[in-house]
Structures are given as structure tokens and as C-alpha cells.
Amino acid sequence: MSSTQSREDIGATRRRTVLERLECPVDENATYENDRWTNRDLIPIPPDRRTYKVWSYFVYWCISGSNISAYTTGSSLLAYGLNAQQAMACVIIGALIVGMLSVACGWMGEIHHIGFTVASRFSWGARGGYFPVVLRAFSGVFYFGIQAYWGGQACSVVSVYHVPRVQPV
């Protein structure tokens, strides 16, 4: 009986340790409780933690547009029959539209200093706010899968299997 109890105690201790590691950090002089409805990630960001400036956002969005999928957009448009000028115009117009939508979606966070999870609670409710977060996570997983596929294709192009042999076998 004592071995069963000790196994349960070990399991409870491990579970508690994992849960403690997953908790959001609490500020030193916090004026909030650290629970599922209020934690450091959900409260409005205090002025001392607002470190992103215009240049930071500009660089972030430029880098996020520098990936293999973005590089293949122009060549895909050429394959559909557009000429180079039309393809470049489409890419630029598309980037401007996405940029305007990104600014519109980030407006609430910029004014009220809140994140996506809190903003989604306005329209979905406290418990329903998990739904758009899960949707966003799934879309991130699929996007990562697409990027991994294209990365694998890029690696296979430069792999040793495509290098011609120079010595006779």
C-alpha cells in the first residue's frame, strides 16, 4: 500500500511541477491575480514594457514577408500567364492590402495596449475567446507545415543527389 501511495505522490509532484512551469510569470508588484482570466499576458501592457517602436514593426513585417512562400508568389503569377510587370503590380497591391488589414487589426491593441486574446473576448465572450485563439494556432501549424515543405524542396535542390558525378564508378 505504501508503494501505491508513493507512486501517487510522485505523480502529483510531477504534475504540480509541470503546472508551475507552465504558469505565466507574475510581476513583482502586481495588482492582479494570476489566474485564467487575468495574468501578465492578458492585462494591458504597462508603459515600461512597451518597447516596440515604428522601426521594430517595420522590420518585423519585412522579415515575415521574406520567406519561401513569398518568393514563389511572383513566379506562380508568371506561370499563370501574367507578365513581369503585372506580377509585380499584383504582389505590391496585395502587400498593400495585407498591410492595411494588419494595421486595422492592430488598431485596438495600439490604442488600448491589449493583445489578440483579450481583443477576441470582446466579440466572442470570456469563454468563447478561446475559439479564435485555437483557430489561429491551427492556421500557424498549417503555415509551418507549408514552410517546412518548401524548405525541404529547397534543400533537395541543393543536395548531393543532384550534383553530377565527376569520377567514374
From TrEMBL:
InterPro entries: Pur-cyt_permease, Uracil/uridine/allantoin_perm
Primary location group: membrane
Similarity section: Belongs to the purine-cytosine permease (2.A.39) family.
Gene3D superfamilies on file: Hydantoin permease
GO molecular function annotations of the record: nucleobase transmembrane transporter activity
Topology term for the membrane: Multi-pass membrane protein
Lineage of producing organism: Eukaryota, Fungi, Dikarya, Basidiomycota, Agaricomycotina
Coiled-coil stretches: none
Keyword Chaperone belongs to the record: no
Entry keyword Transmembrane: yes
Signal peptide residue numbers: none
Localization per Swiss-Prot or TrEMBL: Membrane
Protein name: Allantoin permease
Alphabetical UniProt keywords: Membrane, Transmembrane, Transmembrane helix
Membrane-traversing stretches: 58-80, 86-109, 130-150
Gene Ontology CC: plasma membrane
